Amino acid sequence: MCLAIPMQIIDIHDGHARCHAKGVERDVSLFMMQHTPLQVGDFVMVHVGYAIQKVDTGEAQSAWDLYDQLEGADNA
Question: Is the pLDDT score of 74 beyond 70?
Answer without folding.
Answer: no
